[in-house]
Structures are given as structure tokens and as C-alpha cells.
Amino acid sequence: ADESVSHDEL
Amino acid sequence: MNIFRLTGDLSHLAAIIILLLKIWKSRSCAGISGKSQVLFALVFTTRYLDLLTSFISLYNTTMKVIYIGCSYATVYLIYMKLKATYDGNHDTFRVEFLIVPVGGLAFLVNHDFSPLEILWTFSIYLESVAILPQLFMISKTGEAETITTHYLFFLGLYRALYLINWIWRFYFEGFFDMIAIVAGVVQTILYCDFFYLYVTKVLKGKKLSLPA
């Protein structure tokens, strides 16, 4: 899995 | 965090609170699409599962909890406490026509083929069309209460501000998320017709009513 996917927005 | 995103989030919060207060104070959910509200509750639930896996900031966590809490409170008022005032006869949009294609698309086009990421993508796609049952209901009855139009205005404003936020982030941070941007553009376009009516009618003190 790509750990770099992060969602900091709402 | 930039000013467009902050005001976008606050505008989103304003929309959610306006709707909840309108229903609570008037003890009525007439003219409100319960289906849209269930879709929004589903959107927040599937998107904010990362509350359980990662911490971004106190602001981020607080807003997520408020959004989820308010959306479930709204659904509770519509379908349980104030069920007698719910106008189900006019809330006839077939939500399976949204959920099924959106679910399929989330499986096909995502950043990462993992359960959490697919659910996040599903929530992004679903949010872009979740307002359709509400807009459909207004087109069916031909009118909306002014307070309902304020709710829709803030919801649309939030999307428009997020678009500016993404342009800002692209230029100043080199950040862009194609899935969020495309879905956000679609979502904003859906509000354009409504924005036109809001500016030409509601802001001039007239009730929003559509020609028969």
C-alpha cells in the first residue's frame, strides 16, 4: 500500500 | 492552511449548522431532502474513518467530529424525531442511481487500491452529487424556503472556496489531488444554476420559486 497517500483536507 | 480553505471549512460548517438549527427551531423538516442528508452522513462516515488511524491536527479532528455529529443529528431529526413533518412524497430521487456508479468509479479510479483509500474516494465522488436529491426536490415542488436557500448557498460557497484553495495550494505548495479537484469542479457546477437563482431572487428579498 502507498503510505504516502494522506488527506489533510476536510 | 490558507484563508480560502479556512473560510471554505467555516462556510461548510455554517451550512450544516443553519440546516440543523432551522429544523430544530421550527420543529419541521418540510422541504428538506432526507435522502441528501443520509448521503452526506455516509460521505462523512466513509471519509473520516482516518480519525481512527491517523492524527493530523486538533483543528482537523475537531471539525471532522462536528461534521459527523451534526450530520447524524440532522438525519435523526428527519427520520425519527420529526418524521411526521418529513415530506417523503416529494423526496423521490433514486439514490441507488448515485451510489452504484459512484461505488464502481471509486473502485476503478483511486490513488491506492486499499479499503480506506477506496472508501475515501467513494466519499469524494459521492459528495459531489449528494445534493442532487435536494435540488430535485426543489425542482419538483418548484420552491424553497429562504432559510433552505441560505443552507444551499453556504454549501455551494464552501465548494467554490475549496476550488480557490486548490489553485492556491498548487501554486504555493505544488500540491494537487486530481480526484478531489475533478469531483470538486463537478460539485461546484451543480450549484451554478442555484447560485443564479439565489442572487437574482433571494438576495433581492424574493422567495425562491421556479416557473411552473
Give a structural overview:
The complex is a heterodimer of chains A (10) and B (212). Chain A has no helices and no strands. Chain A has 10 residues and is largely without helices or strands. Chain A is rod-shaped and about 20 Å long. The model of chain A has no long low-confidence stretch (mean pLDDT 72). With 212 residues, chain B is mainly alpha-helical. Chain B has one domain. In chain B, 71% of the residues lie in helices and 2% in strands. Chain B is built from eight helices and two strands. In chain B, strands 1-2 form a two-stranded antiparallel sheet. In chain B, α4 (96-108) packs across α5 (115-129) and α5 runs parallel beside α8. The N and C termini of chain B lie far apart (45 Å). The mean pLDDT of chain B is 96. The interface between A and B is medium-sized, with 8 and 21 residues.
Write the layout of secondary structure elements.
The complex is a heterodimer of chains A (10) and B (212).
Chain A: no helix or strand
Chain B: H1 3-26, H2 34-47, H3 58-81, H4 96-108, H5 115-129, H6 132-141, E1 143-144, H7 146-173, H8 178-200, E2 208-209
Antiparallel strand pairs in B: 1-2
Helix pairs in contact in B: 1-3, 1-7, 2-3, 2-5, 4-5, 5-8, 7-8
Pfam family, one (chain B): ER_lumen_recept
Organism (chain B): Nothobranchius furzeri (Turquoise killifish)
Main location (chain B): membrane
Defining traits:
heterodimer, A: 10 residues, little secondary structure, rod-shaped, B: 212 residues, mainly alpha, two-stranded antiparallel ribbon, 8 helices, globular
Quickly count the domains of chain B.
Answer: 1
Low-confidence stretches of chain A: none
Distance between the termini of chain B: 45 Å
Percent range for helical residues of chain B?
A: over 70%
Category by helix and strand content of chain B: mainly alpha
* Main β-sheet description of chain B: 2 strands, antiparallel
- The percent range for strand residues of chain A is under 5%
The greatest interface here is: A-B, 8 and 21 residues
Q: What is the overall pLDDT average of chain B?
A: 96
Average pLDDT of chain A works out at 72
Number of extended strands of chain B: 2
Please report the total strand number of chain A as a whole number: 0
- Quaternary state reads heterodimer
The profile of the biggest β sheet of chain A is: none
Helix fraction bin of chain A: under 10%
Radius of gyration of chain A, CA atoms, in whole angstroms:
8 Å
3D shape of chain A = rod-shaped
Strand content of chain B is under 5%
Distance between the termini of chain A: 22 Å
- Compute the number of helices of chain B: 8
Protein name (chain B): ER lumen protein-retaining receptor
Pfam family, one (chain B): ER_lumen_recept
Family (chain B): Belongs to the ERD2 family.
Membrane topology (chain B): Multi-pass membrane protein
